[in-house]
């Protein structure tokens, strides 16, 4: 039978392993509670008083700090549903982070590899977080949010349900994000608005100057030309040199679910000025 808090006094100093599967060199801190359906990869460290329940799989060489709660059952889950949490390799989850189990037997809440989830962050059911994502302190993701690879989210930010944050995007601290954030862009504010291209972030991941300039021009066409989505995409295809990053940017726009964050300020920039 799976053991949960509160556990009996006579076992207060005992590490609780209730049938969980652990790889080699796993370390589990004092008073941690590990559910019977949990799988922990090699070299992962679980801090004191962490609670890991549900059908959870944690990858190799992760660090789960003290008092983290993973796969607590969401309040809308039906009794007996096998909601799951999947965490990749080399991810670090800081103190007091909470990650809800998914809603629905065939669904999942997923965190990628090489991520940093800072203290007091919260991830609601069925969120998908990509690889190399950084979430600063007290970021809150509502249900069904998707955060793509290498996005950076500033502290005290809240993300509305079903919102998508594009890869290499940067969200400023204390923002309220209620619309999709296109890849490679920077947004900030309440509600969050677009402020430009994340040039420094792109440079750090090896996107060269020519591609960064192309994406900057794509941003201008999208936000500063006054064109609608369809026409803006046509102009991008007509005027800009196609590269992998630009194609990704355009595909994101074609498939966005909640509209995109509006521009912080408008300009009279003409299309001739973006070339």
Describe what this molecule looks like in 3D.
The protein is an alpha/beta fold and 275 residues long. It has 2 domains: 9-144, Hexapeptide repeat proteins (UDP N-Acetylglucosamine Acyltransferase, domain 1), CATH 2.160.10.10; 203-274, Up-down Bundle (Udp N-acetylglucosamine O-acyltransferase, Domain 2). The protein contains 4 helices and 27 strands. Strands 3-6-9-12-15-18-21-24-26-27 form a 10-stranded mixed β-sheet. A 9-stranded parallel β-sheet has the order 1-4-7-10-13-16-19-22-25, with no helix packed on it. It has an 8-stranded parallel β-sheet with strand order 2-5-8-11-14-17-20-23, with no helix packed on it. β26 (185-188) and β27 (193-197) form a beta hairpin. α2 packs antiparallel against α3. The termini are far apart. Residues 1-14 and 267-275 have low confidence and may be disordered.
């Amino acid at each position: 039978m799976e053991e949960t808090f509160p556990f009996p006094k006579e076992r207060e100093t005992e590490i609780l392993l209730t049938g969980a599967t652990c790889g080699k060199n796993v370390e589990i801190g004092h008073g941690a509670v590990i559910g019977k359906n949990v799988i922990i990869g090699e070299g992962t460290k679980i801090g004191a008083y962490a609670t890991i329940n549900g059908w959870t799989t944690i990858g190799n060489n992760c660090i789960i700090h003290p008092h983290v709660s993973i796969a607590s059952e969401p309040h809308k889950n039906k009794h007996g549903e096998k909601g799951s949490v999947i965490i990749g390799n080399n991810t670090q989850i800081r103190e007091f982070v909470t990650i809800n189990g998914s809603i629905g037997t065939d669904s999942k809440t997923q965190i990628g590899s090489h991520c940093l989830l800072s203290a007091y962050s919260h991830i609601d059911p069925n969120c998908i977080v990509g690889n190399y994502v950084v979430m600063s302190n007290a970021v809150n993701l509502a249900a069904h949010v998707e955060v793509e690879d290498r996005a950076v989210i500033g502290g005290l930010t809240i993300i509305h349900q079903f919102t998508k944050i594009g890869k290499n995007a940067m969200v400023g601290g204390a923002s309220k994000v209620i619309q999709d954030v296109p890849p490679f862009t920077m947004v900030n504010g309440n509600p969050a608005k677009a402020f430009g291209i994340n040039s420094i972030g792109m440079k750090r991941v090896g996107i060269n100057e020519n591609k960064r300039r192309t994406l900057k021009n794509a941003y201008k066409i999208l936000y500063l030309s006054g064109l609608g989505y369809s026409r803006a995409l046509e102009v991008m295809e007509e005027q800009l040199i196609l590269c992998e990053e630009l194609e990704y940017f355009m595909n994101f726009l074609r498939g966005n679910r909640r509209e995109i964050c509006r521009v912080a300020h408008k300009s009279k920039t003409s299309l001739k000025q973006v070339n």
